[in-house]
Amino acid sequence: MRHAYIHVPFCRRRCVYCDFSIAVRREVPAESFVAALRGEITSRVRGGLAFGEPLETIYLGGGTPSLLPPAALALTIDTVRDAAGGRLAEGVEITVEANPEDVTPDAAAAWVAAGVNRVSLGAQSFEASVLEWMHRPHGPDAIGRAVRTLRDAGVASLSLDLIFGIPRAATPRFASDLERAVAFEPDHLSVYGLTVEPRTPLGRWVMRQTVRPAPEERHAVEFLMAHDLLAARGYEHYEVSNFARPTRRSRHNSAYWDLRPYVGLGPAAHSFGDGARRWNVAAFAAWERAAAEGRDPREGEEHLTPEQMRLERAYLGLRTSDGAPVADLPWPTPEGDRALAAGWLEVAGGRVRLTPTGWLRLDSLAHALTTWPVGG
Fold first, then answer.
1. Confidence of residue 52 (pLDDT cuts 50, 70, 90)
2. CATH 3.20.20.70 residue ranges in the chain?
3. In degrees rounded to 5, what are phi and psi of residue 161?
4. Helices H, strands E: what count in the chain?
5. What is the tens place of the pLDDT at every residue in 169-222?
6. CA 70/CA 58 separation, integer angstroms
């Protein structure tokens, strides 16, 4: 295990689109969180978890990890480092997800002192009306202040999150969002299409027909707009939702897409290794209670067959600019030939790669390209 994810579930409020495992807290129970994290690690090691090699990446996601007091955030990183015997690879990537309103000079300096060298900043939009509609706790000006503070503190790599496909009721201007984001010269951008999840405020609004989702046509236009604009500014579109300057790809997330082993700690966190995937209970209180008592907070586990591993490897490969090995696909097929003729994919060097217009059809193409024909 050379990659570690820690899920920090705390948030000030729930955004309208969010269906993640979060715990809305006025006061963050940082001390009990770190104690429970130690308890989970103890139970996992007792159950056979072994890091065994220097950690290459540590990623604090959420939730809002930047809500942790700086001392608790540093202790969280130290806890994971200690569990790995203090073994961190040279050039280890340590990422913290942060909200702009949490970035202060003192906090940023403390993060860097704790080893954080990459921050993923949840900008989402530069439009005040959109941020208010999303129920985000920051305004547009806070994004610029946070970027400057992080740069001044010496954060080596900065990523910005943006969301497109916002309903017209929120008066979005995605082209402006892209231009304003690029003006800050981030090393990386994650650009996500808004999805409507059932158990969210947005899902309820759509069900009641008080909000109408953005049409697929606009979703496609804005996705391709992001591709064209960011490619012209020197960013590599290396995964369906992710863009990076050369050498600045997210090494942690790339481990997921390459099916490398990783350990997940915290509520709802997933782990993968030796062909097995496991996941923790999602509710913070249930996770904390089990972990603090030294019990395994696992909720479930599945072991993938060789065929399931092939499908997983192919699907994850198709998400990326590296593509999937032809050997993992039933190639050629009539579906593949049609996609090739339509310009949705390319074949070279023994790999199948989706084009940006192909990524718009990722799920349907992945299904078609990974399903062996009857009798094949």
1. low
2. 3-257
3. -100, 135
4. 14, 17
5. 777 899 999 999 999 999 999 999 999 999 899 999 999 999 999 999 999 999
6. 16
Give the DSSP letter of residue 372: P
**Phi, psi (rounded to 5 degrees) for 373:** -60, 150
The b/e string for 84-95 (b: 16+ C-beta within 10 A; e otherwise) is beeebeeebbbb
What are the φ and ψ backbone dihedral angles of 332, each rounded to 5 degrees? -85, 160
Is residue 116 packed enough to be buried (19+ CB in 10 Å), middle (13-18) or exposed (0-12)? buried
- Decide if pLDDT at 375 tops 70: no
Instruction: Look at residues 262, 217, 256 and name the one whose alpha carbon lies nearest to residue 240.
Output: 256
Per-residue pLDDT, 26: 84
What confidence tens digit (pLDDT) does each residue in 230-275 have? Answer: 999 999 999 999 999 999 999 999 999 999 999 999 999 999 998 9
3-state secondary structure 92-132: EEEEEEECHHHCCHHHHHHHHHCCCCEEEEEEECCCHHHHH
Q: Which pTM value belongs to this model?
A: 0.95
> Residue 317 carries which DSSP code?
H
Which residue, 220, 235, 258, is CA-closest to 360?
220
Compute the residue count for the chain.
376
Question: Which of 123, 201, 122, 117 has its CA nearest to residue 167?
Answer: 201
H or E segment at 140?
helix 140-153
Bridge partners (DSSP) listed for residue 320: 239
Fold of the CATH domain 3-257? TIM Barrel (3.20.20)
What tens digit of pLDDT does each residue of 298-347 get? 999 999 999 999 999 999 999 999 999 998 898 888 889 999 999 999 99
Q: Which residues, other chains included, contact 215 with Cβ-Cβ below 8 Å and sequence gap of 6+?
A: none
